[in-house]
Predict the structure.
Amino acid sequence: MSNKPSKNQSVNTEEELPEYDFSGGVRGKYYQAYQQGHKLVIHQADGTTMVQDFPLPEGAVILDPDVRAYFPDSETVNSVLRALINLIPARHEGSKNT
């Protein structure tokens, strides 16, 4: 059994350290920037700095939180999108979009 609290349990605030106070945090503050990929800067103990870029993989899609509530994983998203694709009328060769 894990000592971590479940989603339905709250952490005992008496045991939290003051430096872990996130009451002034802003949800989604870096959301837009993260969609472009992110950079990790590691300051080594010897004084050197290591920088790693993490672009989003090609084809990666970030779902908004309200959508993610209905589609928790890629299998579900792909299944629903395939069902929607089947509803789209097939385009005939040589037909024009008007």
